[in-house]
Amino acid sequence: MAADELLLQTSRFQVVRRTQSLADGTAHNREIVVHPGAVVILPLLGDGRVCLIRNQRIAVGEELIELPAGTLNPGEDPLETARRELAEETGYQAECWQRLHEFWMSPGILNERMHLYLATGLEPGPAAPEVGEQIRTLVVPWEEALELIDAGQIRDAKTLASLLYYDRLPK
Fold first, then answer.
1. Model's pTM, two decimal places?
2. What is the DSSP string of 7-61?
3. Residues 98 and 118 in one domain
């Protein structure tokens, strides 16, 4: 296998050209985004409400309703990333953490692996978003979160997948 050709290096990801060998023996070049991975957190309060965020996303030019999430730092354990991101984006600290699932975000062009954690035993505190983040918390009853999906108001893929996955688990 040939080495990747680096096309772009940023502080969070790379874009590379990778050669793929096809079944007929020919080679095909693909440009992919190499990402360190990320976490998404499902914070559930003791009364059954879920803590979502309203996050201004420059890439799509909209404020999206999402679950808290964030990118892994080099060498960082996904659970540590989840703890850090929950506190930064919502102010909550969780007593209990449970790893629920992992999934690929957009495997046609991106190798970002998303680690899903359930956070319970929440204690409120001050949020500390990163510079440039425009985030507001949105705490709603579980059924209202599902209604936001049905109404087309939640359109973020990691949030859709995580909420719907958790909703179908036996309780």
1. 0.92
2. EEE-SS-EEEEEEEE-TTS-EEEEEEEE---EEEEEEB-TTSEEEEEEEEETTTT
3. yes
